[in-house]
Design goal:
Layout lengths: L1 H12 L3 H7 L4 H9 L18 H11 L4 H11 L3 H7 L2 H13 L4 E4 L15 E5 L2 E12 L6 E7 L8 E7 L5 E3 L13 E12 L3 E2 L5 H37 L1 E2 L2 E2 L4 H29 L6 H25 L9 H8 L10 H13 L1
Parallel strand pairs: 1-4
Antiparallel strand pairs: 2-3, 3-7, 4-5, 5-8, 6-7, 9-10
Helix pairs in contact: 1-4, 4-8, 4-9, 6-8, 8-9, 8-10, 9-10, 10-11, 10-12
Length: about 375
């Protein structure tokens, strides 16, 4: 699988990166090829049509997927990750049978609707409400920055069914065509073009009581479990992209001449490259160890936060050094490292900002 994806990414996806950037879309033939390779369900259980990868296998795959434009992996990352894992971890057999095979095949796209305008880093303060009305719930509210929202067929919606705080939140399966659900226009982002986010509005959206995922009041716990899994995957994508950026940097340092010789022969250029390689090596090792501990049930919280924190910061430094090595060319549109410099900035924000990871790590140790 790794060999097939590595070849596909390098021979099919990378040559189309500028097209993705210009059109803000993944070409349909690449989407079909990803479906045929099983990439829409690599982290979903085999019994529901997925590949059933362990997290240790998943992060190694993410190293390969991360080597290309982040939008390519984002196309199916949410269905495998934070959205799909809601069903894997908390869904009933009926809910799993209804949605997981379709997510795994790429027939439908999932979205994870947690973040709100006033509830981002602290989702326990969310205000979207789900009010019981007979054997239905009526959902009202709005979500922001929801990945895949413009394409999503099903939303994992977190809404308040009880009092304040995390214990008053529940999870609901909401079809993308539900009356009263409206998706706003795609956000205009700094980078990661081709990966779409948007606002989602709920105006009297009715769902049956059977649409609740997990017992009432367990939504916050469900969200945190999915995010811990997702943080390891994001960390691995950061490692893959850092490797790509470093490869671009080394190749340029070997071919670009200054003063009659390649700039890679100058020690200060070598120092920039060495710093990136050392941090990349540390990030890769951290992800692999965190994944091993996650699979073993030894650590499903601290390791993912450490890995996500370090690797998202690390890839930003690697991208910054790359632009420095490229000099003026690194600041020009059309040069991959300039695009990656913009793309990687988001990794330090979504699925828990660096500051939230610091809090998770610090509080965990102090407990």
């Amino acid at each position: 699988m790794l060999a097939a994806v590595r070849t596909f990414v390098r021979e099919q996806v990378i040559p189309r990166e500028e097209e993705i950037e210009e059109t803000d879309a993944i070409p349909e033939d690449l989407r079909r090829a990803a479906r045929d390779m099983g990439l829409f369900g690599y982290a979903l259980p085999e019994e529901y049509g997925g590949l059933g990868m362990s997290i240790s296998e998943e992060v190694r795959l993410a190293f390969e997927l991360g080597y290309a434009s982040p939008a390519f992996r984002s196309m199916f990352g949410t269905s495998n990750g934070i959205a799909g894992q809601v069903l894997v971890n908390a869904g009933t057999r009926e809910q799993k049978e209804a949605w997981l095979p379709r997510l795994a095949s790429g027939e439908v796209v999932g979205a994870f609707a947690l973040t709100e305008a006033e509830a981002g880093s602290d989702p326990s303060t969310l205000t979207t409400r789900a009010v019981k009305d007979g054997d239905e719930y009526v959902i009202d509210g709005a979500k922001r920055f929801i990945t895949n929202a413009p394409e999503a067929d099903v939303f994992m919606v977190f809404a308040r069914t009880g009092g304040p705080g995390s214990r008053g939140i529940s999870t609901f399966l909401v079809s993308g065509d539900a009356p009263g659900l409206k998706v706003g226009p795609p956000d205009a982002k700094m980078g990661q073009r081709g990966a779409h986010t948007a606002e989602v509005f709920f105006d009297g959206v009715r769902v049956p009581a059977s649409a609740m995922v997990g017992p009432e009041g367990t939504g916050f716990r469900t969200a945190m479990a999915s995010l811990a899994h997702g943080r390891l995957s994001i960390a691995a994508v950061c490692v893959g992209l850092a490797q790509r950026i470093l490869d671009e940097t080394v190749a340029y340092a070997k071919e670009r001449t200054q003063g009659g010789r390649p700039i890679g022969e100058y020690q200060l250029i070598q120092a920039l490259i060495a710093d990136s390689q050392a941090e990349l090596y540390a990030g890769r090792s951290m992800v692999l160890e965190a994944a091993r501990a996650y699979d073993a049930g030894e650590d499903t919280k601290l390791g993912p936060s450490c890995a996500k924190y370090f690797c998202s910061e690390m890839v930003g430094r690697v991208a910054d050094r790359a632009v420095q090595v490229f000099g003026g060319m690194g600041y020009m549109r059309g040069v991959p490292v300039e695009r990656f410099y913009r793309d990687v900035r988001l990794f330090r924000i979504y699925e828990g900002t660096s500051q939230i990871q610091q809090l998770v790590i610090g509080r965990h140790l102090l407990r």
